[in-house]
Model the fold of this input.
Amino acid sequence: STYYNAWYILDLENNDYEYANGNSGVFINPSDYDSQNNILYANKVKFNGSQSNRIIKMTTNGDISTINLNTNTNVYFSSVKVSPYSTNQQTDLFLGTQSGRLYKVSNVGNENNVNEIGSTDFPTANISSIDFGSNDNEIMITISNYGVSSIWYTDNGGNSWIEKEGNLPDIPVRWGILHPNDNNFGMIATEIGVWQTNNFLSND
Done:
């Protein structure tokens, strides 16, 4: 992957490659790979808001198509995450935006059924990562701005959210992961290093 949605697809067996140029998105462009169906999904929205509501779908032979999601937002998708619980029959895609909005796209590439699952309590800030627990109703998001609550969690698919800042200092959180077998264990990558917890689900 290079900048603005350009990719090289390498065939190591035949010592060959394909080049695909989507000529869109932002400089460091969020994307994620659907390993069940060998498809890459990536943000298509530009810094200036053009190509709003759109993502790119790219197959392993370099074919690029556009999916318009009608999310009614003109900022770019700052986080793109394929649910690890997707199947060959249905892929669910989760998208966070630069302005703190979160969407679930059910059966992406086919039905493209979009639901906003974030909270009005989220700050208007950059969603930097999305991760899951033992199913895709258990979701953690992180936010990479100063002066905001940076970690949020739901165990019911976004019907309600809990702020999980804990004892963190006021630092941007770049990425977060939950242990898939025990949501009490989590790790985050921050502006000043990696932090971990073994009581993520505690009310304290």
About this structure: The longest strand covers residues 182-190. DSSP finds no helices and 17 strands in the chain.
